[in-house]
Amino acid sequence: MSLSLLASALLTLGPDAIKFIGTKLGKSKVADLAADVVTVVGNNYVNPEAQQVALVQNLKHFNADELDELLSMRVTLEQEATKRHQATQGTIQNGDNSKDEYVRQTRPLIARLSMYASVLYAIGFEGLKAAGIGDGASFEVLLWLFSPALTYMGLRTIDGFAPYSKSSGDKTAGAISAFIKRK
């Protein structure tokens, strides 16, 4: 595996998950070292591409045994993430198929309320802006209000709109550039 794929996996996992898996596998020294490097890189670079490059440079200082240990932790964490995802999906499906009407209607209700709140917020604050009061609706607040509705509709991340597969490494960039080209 290339260092760039390992760096991408480590950045995706984050320091806490790296430490957890390291402890679980008895490889906490390497896991702690990798988690510390991921933390430093995350604190010093905002741009994901810059984080990736910086982490690859740092991984070059690891010896072969340490890199092998990181690779084995990555596989274990991916297995754990798959188990957690399946459990989450099972919980959602159980709720959607519940005999209790209240349980079955809760998620759709939250999604509808999220959509209503988003629309009212956007119209209200943009109306105030048109009247000369305030700066209008904040995109961040609007997205926060709308996220339960988007999640219910199946959108988990912005890269869900991308023209490329997640494994291409260009999913988010592809989604954003495709969106910009449409405008």
Task: Count helical runs.
Answer: 8
Please tell me the overall pLDDT: 79
Q: How much strand content do the residues show?
A: under 5%
**What overall form do the CA principal axes indicate?**
flat
Helix and strand composition category? mainly alpha
Query: How much is the radius of gyration in Å?
Result: 21 Å
Commentary on this structure:
- With 183 residues, the protein is mostly helical.
- Helix content is 77%, strand content 0%.
- The chain has 8 helices and no strands.
- The longest helix has 33 residues.
Give a short synopsis of this structure.
This protein is mainly α. It has eight helices and no strands.
Write the layout of secondary structure elements.
Layout: H1 3-13, H2 15-25, H3 28-44, H4 48-59, H5 64-96, H6 101-130, H7 139-152, H8 171-182
